Amino acid sequence: MAIIRVRQHVNPLGEKYQRPVQPPPWAAIYGELHQPLHVDIGCGKGIFLLQMAALYPNWNFLGLEIRQPLVDQALGRGPRAGLTNLHFLFCNANLAFRSLMASWPSPQPLRRVSIQFPDPWFKQRHHKRRVLQPALVEDLATFLPAGGEVVIQSDVEAVARHMRDRLVEFPGFTPSSPGWLAESPFPAQTDRERVTLEQGLTVYRARFIRSCLPEQGSYGQLI
Description:
Layout: H1 26-29, E1 37-41, H2 47-55, E2 60-65, H3 68-74, H4 77-80, E3 86-90, H5 93-102, E4 110-116, H6 134-143, E5 149-154, H7 157-169, E6 173-175, H8 191-198, E7 204-210
Parallel strand pairs: 1-2, 1-4, 2-3, 4-5
Antiparallel strand pairs: 5-7, 6-7
Helix pairs in contact: 5-6
């Protein structure tokens, strides 16, 4: 079997990643189209979502990834596991998220978004390449209903703080706790999370809730 080399760093501002994405026929992909939807931005090889889709058949899962070879590999995982609630797309989430969610047949099922261990882009001048930009935060707020959630995780504290700050700045999101979460809210792990914890290193996590309107009452755990 040929070994596919995948670039670890992809510049999302490059011309190749500015092309619009054609939304797929959602009804032909998911067995139960209107189940709650969890979108994982930067899903990598899709192992985390594969586990989640098997554990929660009453949810749909969508992975967005900017490295096409990883998406090509991930796409076969769901069918081989007999799952009809899992799909992956090659795209630049900052450009594609709004159009993808807007194309979903009503009612809008989005309930959760996760961004886990994104490319850190350490240099200050490269921060504009980080995945969670203000425009994407606004898009998340547009499509997540009151009570929906955004979960962020990173093994780099500066990157986790950057994501947390972008969400704190937006008035429509409220952190579930004042500090970092001690444990992941998910029963599944990404490869990066597993390796980080095996090495005894820290994972910085936070969970944000889409603010409820006063008349909508309080939020309950989705899973």
